[in-house]
């Protein structure tokens, strides 16, 4: 396969992915967009296998079969109400795949490379972003599935832990890039551990109600990790498709923040989430009850009286009602 044909095919498949994402923005064309993107990704896998001349590796086909079977089974069994958890899990798998590519690239010998420092930097960066995406996505899926507490968790010195884990992760990237340590194994271990800690720290402080926004951000991070991993191994298609996924995920995150009237930084930094103790819970509950009683006395009309006097009432179910499976009772 010539290099020109490969580049043209990469451009066509990248455009197909963008068209598929554009179709997903409308209900009437969402299925078509999903199909276009899926077919483009399948053709991309085939293109990579042919271009790198690794069709004879039987392990690849075993992995494709196992992965396809797992994905098909999960897609068939998952309920629509569990789709956010499914998306979070898929984001985590994408981040893990990028981290694996980064680890392999970092541990491989790149002495004969034209840009060895660039390859090392992108490899370590893929590990950091990939592991952050994996751990954050697992926490998000666990919170939405009620395996983990849905309330924001703020530990002692939480902000310090978040900042230090991020700073140390990037310090390992810099050290590995300049090749200050002869053996890259310990750099990989450091990036792996501290980026995982950062993913844990920043995701546990996000409440369950804000998790859809966090999942959208993690979707963007998974695309970024894939694009950076593509830079590490020198694959144009992985770079372009990963960048498309990262950009679309970031745009979706901004749209969701505007719709929920929340800022992204307030969600990620857990603004308003405080360390909860029994005394503070009692004080806040008593204070809230007193304020509600005062407001009820001041107001002449209550919500019940307004609803009773209304001729038509429209109830719009949201994510919370869907999560509680209460829409059928409300309809009755």
From TrEMBL:
Q: Where is the signal peptide?
A: none
Enzyme Commission code: 7.1.1.1
Chemical reaction(s) catalysed: NAD(+) + NADPH + H(+)(in) = NADH + NADP(+) + H(+)(out)
The domain of life is Bacteria
Q: Which UniProt keywords apply?
A: Membrane, NAD, NADP, Translocase, Transmembrane, Transmembrane helix
Q: Name one GO cellular component term.
A: membrane
Question: What is the recorded membrane topology of this protein?
Answer: Multi-pass membrane protein
InterPro entries reported in the protein's UniProt record: DHS-like_NAD/FAD-binding_dom, PNTB-like
Q: Where in the cell is it found?
A: Membrane
Question: Which parts of the sequence belong to the NADP transhydrogenase beta-like domain?
Answer: 9-332
Query: Which GO terms fall under molecular function for this chain's record?
Result: proton-translocating NAD(P)+ transhydrogenase activity
Pfam hit, one: PNTB
* Chief place of localization: membrane
- Membrane spanning segments where? 6-25, 32-50, 56-75, 87-107, 122-141, 153-178, 184-204, 211-230, 236-257
- The name on file for this protein is proton-translocating NAD(P)(+) transhydrogenase
């Amino acid at each position: 396969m010539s290099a020109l044909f490969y580049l043209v095919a990469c451009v066509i498949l990248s455009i197909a992915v963008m068209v598929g994402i554009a179709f997903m923005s409308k209900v009437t064309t969402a299925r078509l967009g999903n199909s276009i993107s899926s077919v483009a990704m399948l053709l991309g896998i085939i293109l990579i296998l042919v271009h790198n001349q690794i069709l004879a590796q039987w392990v690849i086909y075993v992995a494709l079969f196992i992965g396809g079977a797992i994905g098909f089974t999960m897609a068939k069994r998952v309920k629509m109400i569990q789709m956010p958890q499914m998306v979070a899990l898929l984001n985590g798998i994408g981040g893990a795949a990028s981290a694996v590519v980064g680890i392999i690239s970092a541990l491989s010998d790149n002495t004969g490379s034209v840009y060895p420092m660039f390859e090392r930097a992108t490899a370590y960066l893929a590990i950091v972003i990939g592991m952050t995406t994996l751990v954050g996505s697992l926490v998000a899926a666990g919170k939405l599935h009620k395996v983990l507490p849905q309330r924001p968790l703020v530990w002692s010195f939480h902000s310090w832990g978040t900042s230090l884990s991020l700073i140390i992760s990037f310090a390992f990237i810099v050290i590995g890039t300049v090749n200050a340590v002869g053996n890259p194994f310990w750099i990989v271990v450091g990036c792996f551990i501290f980026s995982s800690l950062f993913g844990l720290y920043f995701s546990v402080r996000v409440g369950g109600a804000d998790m859809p926004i966090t999942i959208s951000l993690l979707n963007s991070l998974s695309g970024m990790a894939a694009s950076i991993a593509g830079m590490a191994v020198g694959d144009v298609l992985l770079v372009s498709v990963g960048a498309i996924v990262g950009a679309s995920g970031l745009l979706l995150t901004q749209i969701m923040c505007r719709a929920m009237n929340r800022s992204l930084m307030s969600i990620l930094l857990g603004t308003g989430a405080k360390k909860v103790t029994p005394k503070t819970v009692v004080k806040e509950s008593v204070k809230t009850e007193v304020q509600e009683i005062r407001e009820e006395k001041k107001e002449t009309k209550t919500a019940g009286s307004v609803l009773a006097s209304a001729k038509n009432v429209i109830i719009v179910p949201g994510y919370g009602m869907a999560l509680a499976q209460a829409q059928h009772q409300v309809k009755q």
